[in-house]
Amino acid sequence: MGRILVAEDDEGVRTFLVEALEGVGHDVVAAPDGLAAIEILRGGGIELLLTDLRMPGADGMAVVRVARAEEADVEVIILTAFGDVKTAVDAMKLGAFDYLEKPVASPAAVRALAASALARRAELVGESASLRAALAKAPASRSPRMRAAEEALAKVAKTAATVLLQGESGTGKEVAARAIHDASPRASKPFVAINCAVLSEPLIESELFGHEKGAFTGAHAQRRGRLELADGGTFFLDEVGELHPSLQAKLLRVIEERSFERVGGSKAIEVDVRFIAATHRDLRAMVREGKFREDIYHRLAVFPITLPPLRERREDIVPIAETLLAQLSPAGSPGRAAPALSAAAQAHLVAAPWPGNVRELRNVLERAIILADGGVLTVEHLALDSQEGREATAATPRLEDLERAAIENALAAVQGNRKDAAARLGIGLRTLYEKIKRYGLR
C-alpha cells in the first residue's frame, strides 16, 4: 500500500477518489486546490500523486513540476476532462505515469491504475538504488578519460571550488556530484538538489530563495528556500542550462555574495554553500548564442569536469557490466555467483553505441539474466537492437580488438589464472590458450 495525494477541486470527485483508494488500504491525503497540493508535496513522503489539471491557485502542470522537483520518484496520474487529453499527454512528457478521463468509470479503474503506478515506482526506486550501489562499487576505470575525470573529482572534493559537471544524460553527473559532497569537508551537512528543467520560472524562484508570508496569492506562511536549507552543505543545480535568464542574474549574485532575499522580503540572508552544477548542454555555445549569461558561466565553470559517455570508455564496459550483474542477478544473494558473460557477449557489449549510457546497459543485462535463466550470458541473451549496431560510429573497434580486450579483462580480474579466466569467459581452457597465443598475450 502507498501514500497517495489526491489534488482535486471538485469535492464530489475528490471524495470518490479518496474513498476508492482508502477502501483497499492506501494512506490517502486530499488537497482542494493546487497550492494546498504543493504544500503537502513539500512535506515529503508522497509516493503517488493524482491531480486534476484545472484547479484554482496552481494548475495541475505546476503541481506535477513541483512533484518532480521535490520527490524524483513520485509517480503521477493526471485527472482530465475529455477536452484536456492533449494537456494530459504533455504532462506525461514531464514523467506522468498515465491519465484518467473524468468521469472516472469505477472505483476499480482508479485502484488498478494506482496499483500499476505504485508497482512501477517500487521497481524504479529499486533500480535507482541498485545502479547507485553498482557505480559506487565499480572498479577503478581503465579508460584514460574516465580516470582523469575520477582524479579531478577526488582533487576538487577537498576544496570549496564551484564545479561544473558536463556530459550526456546517463553518464552519472548526479552520482559524481554526490561523490564530491561525500568526500568533502561538508559531508556531514545537507546535500540539496534542484532540477532547473522541471520547474517554471515563478516556481523555481520560490524554490531557490523561499518566500515571505503574503508574498503572493497562496503564500500563507513564511517558507525557507532550498538555498537556505543547504546552508553549510552542498547545493546541486541539475540541468543548469535550462535556468531562465532572469534567474541567472539572481543566481549570479548568490554565487558571488552568498546572500539573497526571500521572495517578498527585504532582509538579506547569508548562506555558506558549495555550488555544483550539471548540464548535458554545451554552455559555451549557449553563451555565444546569447542563451546563457557569460558571467554566470564563468562563475560556474571554475572547475569543469566532463564525464565521457560509455562509447568513449569502452575499456570500462565489461567491468561495469560485471558489477551490474552482481547487483542485478537473483544470485545477488550471498553464496551464489553472478552469471558470467561469454567472450562473444563481452565483445558485443563493447561494440554497442550505448546512447543511454549506464542505464541502458543495466536494462539490457537485466533482460539477459531473465533469458539466460542462470546460465552463461551469450549474444542471443543480450538481444541488442541490430539497428543500434549498424549505427555504431566509425570509431567502433574491430571484433578482434574487442575479443582481445575481453580476454585481457578476464585475465586481469583473476590475477592471470587461466582456468578461472576461461570459466569467466564461458570458453574452454584449450580455446583460451589458443587465443592467448594468437593475440600474443602474456
Q: How many β-strand runs? A: 14
Structural class: alpha/beta
CATH topology descriptor of the largest domain = Rossmann fold
Radius of gyration over alpha carbons?
25 Å
What does it look like?
By secondary structure, the chain is of the alpha/beta class. Helix content is 49%, strand content 13%. Strand 3, helix 3 (60-70) and strand 4 (75-80) form a beta-alpha-beta unit. The longest helix has 31 residues, at 107-137. It starts with a strand and ends with a helix.
Question: In brief, what are we looking at here?
Answer:
The chain has 442 residues and is of the alpha/beta class. 49% of the residues lie in helices and 13% in strands. The protein is built from 20 helices and 14 strands.
What are its keywords?
five-stranded parallel beta sheet, 442 residues, Helicase, Ruva Protein, domain 3, alpha/beta, Rossmann fold, 13% strand
Secondary-structure blueprint of this entry?
Blueprint: E1 3-7, H1 11-22, E2 27-31, H2 34-42, E3 48-52, H3 60-70, E4 75-80, H4 85-93, E5 98-101, H5 107-137, H6 144-157, E6 163-166, H7 173-182, E7 191-195, H8 201-209, E8 210-211, E9 223-224, H9 226-229, E10 234-238, H10 245-257, E11 259-260, E12 269-270, E13 274-279, H11 283-288, H12 294-300, E14 303-306, H13 317-328, H14 343-351, H15 357-372, H16 379-382, H17 386-390, H18 399-413, H19 418-425, H20 429-439
Parallel strand pairs: 1-2, 1-3, 3-4, 4-5, 6-13, 6-14, 7-10, 10-13
Antiparallel strand pairs: 8-9, 11-12
Helix pairs in contact: 1-5, 2-3, 5-13, 6-7, 10-12, 13-15, 14-18, 18-19, 19-20
